[in-house]
Amino acid sequence: MSSVTTTLTGNVVNDLATFGSAENPGTRFRVAVNSRRKDRTGAWVDGNAYFVDVKCWGRLADNVKWSVRRGDPVIIAGRPETTDYTVDGQRRQSHEIIASFIGHDLTFGTSQFRKTSKPAQDGHERNGLQEPSAAAAPDPYAVPSETDELVGGVPGDAGDLDPRFDDAMAR
Question: What percent of the chain has pLDDT over 70?
Answer without folding.
Answer: 67
